[in-house]
Amino acid sequence: VAMLGVLCAWAVRRAWSAAPMLARRLPAPMVAAWAATGVSTGYAWLSGWGVPAQRTVWMMVVAVCLMTLGRRWPWALIWLLCAAIVSAFDPWSLCMPGFWLSFVAVGVLLASGLAPGDAAPLHAAGSGRGWQGVRRSARELLQTQRLVALALTPVALVCFQQVSVVGVGVNLVAVPVFTALITPLALAGALWPVCWDVGAWLIGWMWVGLRGAAELPWAVLHAPELPVWVAVAGVLAAFALALPGRWRWRGLAWPFLLPFVMLPDAWQLVPPPPPGRFTLVAADVGQGGAVLVRTARHTLLFDTGARRPDGSDLGERVLLPLLRALGVDRLDELVISHEDIDHVGGAASLLQGMEVLALRTTLEAGHPLLQQAAARSPVVPHIGCEAGASWAWDGVRFEVLHPLGRRAAGESDNARSCVIRVQAAPDGSGRPAASLLLTGDIEAPQEQALLQAWGAAGLRSTVLVVPHHGSRTSSSLAWLQAVAPVQAVVQVGARNRDGHPHASVMSRHGDLGVAVSTSPRCGAHIWRSDEAERADGPPHPGRPRLGRCWREGQRRHWEPGASGSAPP
Length: 568
Prior knowledge:
- By secondary structure, the protein is of the alpha/beta class.
- It folds into two domains: about 1-260, no CATH class; about 280-555, 4-Layer Sandwich (Metallo-beta-lactamase, Chain A).
- Helices cover about 50% and strands about 10% of the residues.
- The chain has helices at about 1-15, 20-25, 30-45, 50-70, 75-90, 95-110, 120-125, 130-160, 165-190, 195-215, 230-240, 245-260, 315-325, 340-345, 345-355, 370-375, 445-460, 475-485, 505-510, 520, 550-555; strands at about 160-165, 220, 280, 290-295, 300, 330, 335, 355, 360, 380-385, 390-395, 395-400, 420-425, 435-440, 465, 485-490, 515-520, 525-530, 550.
- The chain has an eight-stranded mixed β-sheet.
- β15 (about 465), α18 and β16 (about 485-490) form a beta-alpha-beta unit.
- α6 (about 95-110) runs antiparallel to α8 (about 130-160).
């Protein structure tokens, strides 16, 4: 948008200056500025009127109005006014990453004096000749990219939980190529279509380079999701470093950088538990299963959600972003309870997108997932899920309770579900240690077999992930009486076609005094094994007694219980 405006202003100014009669009536710079603003506005509208385009247009409008009136405002006032105008016309833009990325980038450039809106640096940059001018332009381009990268890093971490390591280097090549070659060729193509072919050829080569840079193993740095206040501190530090007289302001920047340097764990959404304790995160993956269990230094993921008919899967769309937001960069063990697509669907994306040290499944030899794990470098070892296996991480005990034997002829995948019990270390109070039971899609016959094999003492758990999404073929009364959970978690899709969880299952839990949280009402269910029972508000269906619901703390204004809405 800005590039088109510059070209239009140059052409109109030359043409207007060539007619002395017109130039005496209206100054050529003013006419050129208004013409450039009009052309840029039309182009921005045709391009979709995105937030960056709106920001460019409104800054041009304000600047031209000030020039016409003979006024001069500080850059900060123009910047804030344009942000207010964009948000007034489109309040939802405040929820878009593009709004913050665009305005923060331009703001830090305006503060440094490198933005196109500042006439003095442009005049200085254009005063050089030959190699001196080239060196000055290259130096300013490098400084611009450095400042923009510094300012946008905290914003990118808040919005995407990742930041590009190769971005500065890529922009040093891409910005001059697009500005000096591709954009002029795209405009010239309206007069001579051959220019479009040349531009397409250049874009093809640029795409090859961009794809190669993106595929570098260290191209992107992932980090836990930041609270907004940490991002604000980072942006303020970037502005302090960008202001003229940097040595004078540099000392002011350091306090704003302290959250990044000294408090890496304090702002994590779900910090790791202490030794001997574990944290449960039952992810909201709709009709499917995916439960994250974290100890002090280890992480286990039980199931991976579904794969959709369009080829997308919950591993890529939900679990990888969730793990990165939580600061998890490695899975010590990935457990696939059984072969159903709503439990194994996201596993391939997880194997591809994250380091996995071990894979525990009930899958048959030759399954594509096992072949993918064997083809990884290094190879991801496969462990069969068999009853009796146990291990301990950081004082937390994991024990496999099911399958109990070899697969019988005609036995369903659900009947072979892997069942794991997780138990925290005793706390010294004499009370039973907190525990968790992960059940996959077992049904009533498998529940009975587990009762016979392990007894009530071996099954009793504080929190139960309800078998088979609350199907009426599971969660028998004898099973619930033996497990005796305080809290049950149902991972289920909203208004799913199977009718899960079944009313009879919910009724049995209620009769036994078991609190139940469901994915549609709760979202992700988060619980740490050393947390006491909840006491924050009256109970209602879907509200947990243990742990917390992510959706309750992130309510939208139209949802029950949000500020200003009707009570639930």
